[in-house]
Design a protein that fits this description.
Elements (H helix, E strand, L loop, with lengths): L1 E4 L3 H8 L6 H30 L11 H6 L6 H19 L6 E6 L2 E9 L2 E5 L8 H14 L3 E5 L10 H10 L4 E2 L3 H10 L9 E3 L4 H10 L4 E2 L7 E6 L5 H12 L6 E6 L2 H15 L5 H8 L3 E4 L3 H11 L3 E5 L3 H5 L7 E4 L5 H6 L25 E9 L1 H17 L3 H12 L4
Helix pairs in contact: 2-7, 2-8, 4-5, 5-6, 7-8, 9-10, 15-16
């Protein structure tokens, strides 16, 4: 971890820049994959799965029998944990559902906004070395609460040509049975454009690696996507009241996602930073993903500021995916945070809680997008429609205003639509 001491504001932009691994080469490769799927459909999915995942699949869809049998391979304790997490996520997200709003704008003018579920959504669940069954919860629950009629899930196959049993079991609990065992950019292409056996979706959701994210960027001109989520990010603001072991463990929890994870510690105490760095070395030993963590920490930063207030200013510019505040005045400091995907306050609000079971969603904006984009909520799976109903008196009350504005814009047919009714005395 690189330690940076009292940077000037002129250095902020450079320090906030995210690392990018061969973006041009990635886009070139992904564009070819997307075109291949558009042209060759199912056969391309089978071939690309063999090429990239080194797995030969006999069918694209996961059988109902496999989904039903999945619970035999999941421990009872994990089942309890999964079901507990589902309950918490349901409880938090249930309060997000919006009802139709009716407004009487004026006498005879009724306006409404109606919230409707997106009918068909595609959910991408990463597999590989870390099959994220928790993401099934985070995406399927708000989709179900929103009332989405058709949910299709994509996830990479395992070496036996099936999918993660944990992903299958979690899907079963949530009632998701339409599962395709395809991952990577080819999965995003299939969701966007469809194939012989796969109907295209109305919106794509889910995290993924740089290939998945690049594919979402390429197809977004044709289909809606949730967000462009890059490598995982965690920024921690801590003073000398914080526990160095707690902070180090939080940093490691995100570093293990991948070598391109973005890990940052901000503090007003050099002694505290050095303590955290020491704990990083101690705690990494023995972890299953130690090699990944070691590579990730090479690009990690610890930045010393003269005050926590300056650290907060920097955090708002950086706009991280996850932000932990562990300071003496944690609640007060938290009020100053304007930009982050999800905020964690206090020594016991570990980011891992949000990843799994506290109730909030872990599908969040990265790469500074939290300045303008929110994480996944029930709203993400809905669309709104405005409605207006005017009586004769209602239209008459605003008719002259409409005519005046339409004429000023040179749109006399708009004015005509009013005049035609005025001439007929609104009958």
């Amino acid at each position: 971890m690189k330690i940076i001491i009292n940077p000037s504001t002129d250095q902020y932009q450079n320090l906030c820049r995210r690392e990018s691994l061969n973006k041009e080469l990635t886009e070139q490769a992904v564009r070819q994959i997307v075109e291949d799927v558009k042209l060759n459909g199912d056969s391309a999915l089978v071939r690309l799965t063999s090429q990239f995942d080194r797995v030969k699949i006999d069918s694209l869809y996961v059988s109902q029998e496999f989904i039903d049998d999945s619970e035999k391979y999941v421990s009872d304790r994990l089942k309890i944990a999964i079901n507990s997490a589902i309950r918490n996520v349901i409880k938090f997200h249930s309060f997000q559902k919006r009802e139709t709003v009716d407004v009487i704008v004026g006498k005879g003018i009724e306006c409404s906004i109606k919230y409707l579920p997106i009918e068909r959504v595609g959910i991408y669940i990463p597999g590989g070395s870390a099959p994220l069954f928790s993401s099934v919860i985070m995406l399927a629950v708000p989709a179900l609460i929103a009332g989405c009629k058709d949910i299709i899930l994509f996830t990479p196959p395992t070496v036996d040509g099936e999918i993660s049993r944990e992903i299958a079991y979690t899907s079963k609990v949530l009632g998701i049975s339409n599962i395709v065992k395809v991952g990577g950019a080819q999965a995003i292409a299939a969701m966007a454009y469809g194939t012989e056996s796969i109907k295209s979706v109305d919106k794509i959701f889910g995290p993924g690696n740089m290939f998945v994210n690049c594919a979402k960027e390429l197809v977004c001109k044709d289909v809606s996507v949730d967000m462009f989520a890059g490598p995982s990010e965690l920024l921690v603001i801590a003073d000398d009241s914080a526990n160095p072991t707690y902070v180090a463990s939080d940093l490691l929890s995100q570093a293990e996602h991948g070598i391109d994870s973005q890990i940052t510690l901000l503090s007003d105490s050099l002694e505290f930073i050095e303590s955290v760095v020491l704990q990083l070395d101690v705690l990494t030993k023995g972890l299953k993903r130690a090699e990944i963590i070691i590579q990730s920490l090479k690009s990690a930063k610890a930045i010393l500021f003269e005050s926590i207030s300056l650290a907060i200013d920097y955090a708002n510019i950086y706009a991280p995916e996850h932000l932990i505040i562990s300071t003496k005045g944690g609640d007060e400091d938290a009020l100053k945070i304007k930009n982050c995907g999800s905020l964690f306050i206090g020594p016991f609000s570990t980011e891992s809680a949000g990843d799994y079971a506290s109730g909030t969603n872990h599908t969040l904006p990265t790469s500074g997008w939290s300045k303008s984009v929110s994480g996944v909520t029930v709203d993400s799976f809905t669309k709104s429609m405005t409605i207006q109903k005017l009586t004769k008196e209602g239209l008459e009350s605003i008719s002259q205003d409409i005519i005046e504005m339409a004429n000023a814009e040179g749109l006399d047919a708009h004015a005509l639509a009013i005049k035609a009714r005025v001439i007929n005395n609104f009958n």
